[in-house]
Amino acid sequence: MSGLDARLLAAHAAGDDAALVGLYTQAADAAANVDTECFFLTHAYIFALEQGDTRADALRARLISHGRETLD
């Protein structure tokens, strides 16, 4: 298990949603392809939305840039 995987699991176990936004964003940044990137971005975006995190806008913009979200 990679360090990032371990930190994701620990953040889930602790219920640390703020950390999950950052960790899933890191996972997206390290993804080998756009589908995997968007999978992780979606997770980060959902956690950001749930807590009103200001990072949600940037995450949505990335999903839009990959055609996974619309401006509507």
Q: Could you please describe the fold and organization of this structure?
A:
- This protein is mainly α and 72 residues long.
- The protein has one domain.
- Helix content is 74%, strand content 0%.
- The chain is built from four helices and no strands.
- The protein has helices spanning 3-14, 17-29, 34-51, 56-65.
- The protein is flat, with a radius of gyration of 12 Å.
Largest sheet: none
Mean pLDDT: 95
Low-confidence stretches: none
Radius of gyration: 12 Å
The figure for the number of domains is: 1
Strand content: under 5%
Ends apart, CA distance between termini: 39 Å
Describe what is shown at a glance.
By secondary structure, this protein is mostly helical. It starts with a helix and ends in a 7-residue tail after the last helix. The chain is built from 4 helices and no strands.
SSE topology sketch:
Elements (H helix, E strand, L loop, with lengths): L2 H12 L2 H13 L4 H18 L4 H10 L7
Quick tags:
72 residues; mainly alpha; 0% strand
